[in-house]
Structures are given as C-alpha cells and as structure tokens.
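Chapter review: from sequence to fold.
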Amino acid sequence: MYRGTLLSLILVFCGSTLTLAQPGNWPSRPVTLIVPFVIGGASDTVARLLAPELSAVIGQPVVVKNWAGAGGSIAARQLTRLAPDGHVLMFAGLSETVLIPLSQPTAGYSPQDLQPIFIVGSTPLALAVRTKFPAHDIDSWVQIARANPMKFSYGSNGLGSYGHLMLQTLAHRLGLEMLYVPYKGSSQMLNDLAGGQIDLALVSLPSVLPYVNSDKVKLLGVSSATRMVDTGQTPTFHESSALAPYQISVWGGIFAPQAIPDEVAVRINTAFALVLRNSKIREGLIRIGAQPDQPRSLSESRLFFMRQIEQFHPLTSHPR
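The token string follows.
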C-alpha cells in the first residue's frame, strides 16, 4: 500500500491531474506481463523477477504469461491488436520489436506499432558451443568452421532474431558457411546445444550462464567490454582478431500497443522506475548477467527505441 501511495504522490508532484474518470486510472485490475518466449529463458527469468515487485508498487496482481512462437513475433503481433489500456504489457527485446518486423514483411506489424514504455537494461552476448566442440576460442572456431563449410550448425530464437541475423552476418563477413536451426526460445535451443544436437549459438549472457555454470556448454567469447568474473574470465570479442570490431549487446524493456494514452504510459513508466530503484531487483538482474539501466523517462525510452530502429535498419534491409 505504501508503494502504491508513493506512486500516486510522484505523479501528483509531476503535475498529473488524473481522476477516476480519466483513462490514466491505471491499474484498475490485474496486469498481464507477456513474455514472447517459453518458460525458462532469459526474458522469462527477468519478467518473473520484476513481476512481484511491480505488483507491490501498483497494488494489483501482475501475472506473467508465456506466449511463444516465431522468435517472439507472435506475441508482439498480438499485443498490437489488444486494447491499449496498459493492462496487458510485454517484456520484449531487440529481436521481436526491431529486427523481425524490419526484416520480415510477413511479420504482420512494424516497430512503430509498439510503444516503448520503459527500458529495463542490457546484457552482453556470448558465443556458446557444445562442450566437445573442437575449438576453445573465437579465432580457432573461425579457422575450423572456414575449413569445414556446412559441417557445423547454429541455433537462434527464430528467423530474424538477433541470434540469427547477427551470427549470419558475422558468418558472411568471416567467410563461414553453417547450417541454421530456428527455435521457439533460448531454453529449448540451449538444451539442444547442451545435448550436442547443434554446435553453437549467439545468445544473451543471462540465458546461457546456468548451462555454463553446470558445465553443459562452454563459451568461446563474450561481447562485454572487459572480462567478467561470472563467465570464468572468458575472453571478450575484442580480444579476438575475428570479432574485435563487434562490441554488441541486447536489451529488454516494457512495451504496450502503440495507441496507449500518454498519461497511462507515464504511470507505467513511473511504476517500473520504482521497481528498478529497488536494490534487490538490481542485484538480481546483475546476478543473472544483465546490466540494469538508470531509469529512463517515457520520452527517453522512446528516443532509445527510435535510435535502435535507425541503428539496425541496415542489417535488416539486407539479411544474409
């Protein structure tokens, strides 16, 4: 109750004039937080970390619902068709909000059909391989794969996802030919990687860390600026001659249908800002390999999203 009151007070001091009759009366019932992937992946882990604290802040239940398929695009497309009242939100990232709709005309929606409400944070990417893969660093992987075209396979969360487009583009630039295997989510893909059904994947660090810690897969490199203790000091992409130019990361945030009223979006943004100011939440994100951002305002979140569209449009315009 205290946090719900605090949220209301913050909005009052920010100049809000919301009344019970206005659409800004959010939330008036339980909130659903959609995860566009199967249970157990990085997105699901983060959403389930945030949901209880969000519930405490807004004074309503927050239910996490997994709605997987087509690299997250099924959930994103369906979100655009729901009532824009803020009671159904989606925790989503780069692939399903930018890369897939830009690269696939059949996706059925565009990035502009989604409204970015709050950017939660980012995470490095990791090049992960099965434990018996005959390479122990990125440069030896490049040499082996180049000498054996179409012998090795890689997986991703689906066509047009970052794990697909980025690795495909890297392979093209490095002169590699590999087999591509699409999945519905990172947990299924990583299970197959651990079982040796596929050879490698470019994945977010939070999704792969449990497999690394249990010695089910191994890492050849991470895209962080410096080596990380949690990855056993795995070399960075920058230390590899092959991937030195590619310092990349992915991010996750809260999205709503494009037509959501600004006053509702502001309330949601403020609620998530309170969630991210909780030290336990921030520590939890860091523990799973994510880097929480400093809370962005609604306008700052929109600007971030617009710049992501601009940055990745060339990659999606000419998919390899």
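Two observations follow directly from the output. The chain has two domains: 2-122+250-317, 124-239. The chain has eleven helices and ten strands.
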